[in-house]
């Protein structure tokens, strides 16, 4: 039969899993609800378990917030490009319309000349009205030049009109894209604000739980997990990333931090691999799509290992079933066994 402290720990874990599942399956950010704090723990182990369960929830919310921020930034970039395209298209419209107006004048001049001279604007009239063969040749040559100029003017006018129409269509398309991007940005901003508020609410809970931790609880959170397995990575970049991450053992976990002295989980992996010349995206979920997938049976030191479905945590594999990672708030960068909710691995340094 389970003891009361163990039952409370299990209840805390179930609550954490429920919140993470609700966020991961696409529930609107405005619908996210955070669990109420449990009854005060009866012992130190129970207090630390509750704190870690709440910290795991906060880590998930932090990752969701970071992804929402990335989505918002990407849509803002789309909006900026669409507005730039719109400005360029409008300039093309104005230039093409100016050209059309200019060539319209020339075309109108030819039309007026043709109307006024009537039948004189052809080679037969040049022959009939000429005074000599040379005069005929001169008149014919002049008519040919006029005909070429007329055709060129008509072609220029037609090209300008078509260019104006094409530019106008480009402007319409850009305007529609800009409006769509603007609408999407507004929705994403609302989502970002809601997730930020959810994270802050969870932070407030953690602050309350933190006051229940004993000195020994806090000391256990500062534990860096012992020595690394020391197995060599297959590539220089992977080895350098491992070395950088291990050099940060004991560094505090801070939401949204990417180094050099504080980190969240994806911030540590991005920082470590960045020092090795490998660029990674900002969030654990985005990192889980980089590089190539690796079966668990073929893990090598330096591989990124992911946890949760959807992914909410990432570390760097060290070998012997261990990883270096930034666990969650109140904790430090440390060496740990792979977590139970392991969900996959990616190799980003070949």
From TrEMBL:
Print the keywords alphabetically: Coiled coil, Hydrolase, Protease, Thiol protease
**Family annotation (InterPro entries):** NLP_P60_dom, Papain-like_cys_pep_sf, PG_Endopeptidase_C40
What the entry lists under Gene3D superfamilies is as follows:
endopeptidase domain like (from Nostoc punctiforme)
Annotated region described as Disordered, given as residue ranges:
210-234
Claim: NAD is one of the keywords in the record: no
Residues annotated as coiled-coil are: 44-99
Q: Which PANTHER family match?
A: NLP_P60 DOMAIN-CONTAINING PROTEIN-RELATED (PTHR47359:SF3), PEPTIDOGLYCAN DL-ENDOPEPTIDASE CWLO (PTHR47359)
Biological process (GO) annotations held by this record are:
proteolysis
**What name does UniProt use for this protein?**
NlpC/P60 family protein
UniProt GO molecular function: cysteine-type peptidase activity
**Family membership:** Belongs to the peptidase C40 family.
> Where does the NlpC/P60 domain start and stop, copy by copy?
235-350
């Amino acid at each position: 039969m389970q003891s009361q402290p163990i039952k409370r720990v299990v209840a805390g874990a179930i609550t954490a899993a429920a919140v993470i599942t609700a966020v991961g399956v696409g529930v609107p950010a405005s619908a996210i609800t955070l669990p109420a704090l449990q009854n005060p723990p009866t012992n130190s182990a129970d207090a630390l378990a509750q704190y870690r369960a709440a910290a795991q929830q906060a880590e998930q919310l932090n990752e969701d917030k970071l992804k929402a921020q990335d989505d918002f930034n990407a849509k803002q970039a789309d909006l900026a490009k669409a507005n730039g395209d719109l400005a360029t298209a409008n300039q093309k419209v104005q230039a093409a319309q100016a050209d059309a107006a200019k060539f319209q004048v020339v075309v109108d001049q030819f039309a007026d000349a043709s109307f006024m001279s009537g039948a004189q604007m052809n080679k037969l009239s040049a022959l009939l009205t000429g005074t000599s063969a040379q005069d005929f040749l001169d008149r014919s040559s002049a008519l040919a030049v006029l005909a070429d100029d007329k055709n060129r003017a008509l072609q220029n006018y037609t090209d300008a009109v078509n260019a104006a129409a094409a530019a106008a269509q480009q402007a319409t398309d850009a305007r529609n894209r800009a409006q769509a991007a603007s609408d999407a940005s507004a929705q994403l901003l609302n989502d970002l604000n809601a997730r930020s508020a959810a994270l802050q609410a969870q932070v407030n809970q953690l602050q309350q739980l933190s006051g229940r931790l004993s000195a020994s609880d806090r000391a256990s959170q500062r534990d860096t997990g012992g020595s690394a397995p020391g197995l060599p990575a297959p590539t220089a970049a992977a080895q350098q990333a491992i070395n950088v991450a291990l050099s940060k053992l004991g560094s505090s976990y801070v939401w949204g931090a990417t180094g050099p002295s504080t980190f969240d989980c994806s911030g540590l992996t991005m920082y470590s691999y960045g020092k090795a010349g490998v660029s990674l995206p900002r969030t654990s979920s985005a990192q889980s799509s980089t590089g190539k997938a690796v079966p668990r049976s073929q893990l090598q030191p330096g591989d990124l290992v992911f946890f949760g479905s959807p992914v909410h945590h990432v570390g760097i594999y060290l070998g012997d079933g261990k990883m270096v990672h930034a666990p969650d708030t109140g904790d430090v960068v440390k060496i740990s066994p792979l977590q139970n909710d392991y969900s996959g691995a990616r190799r980003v340094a070949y």
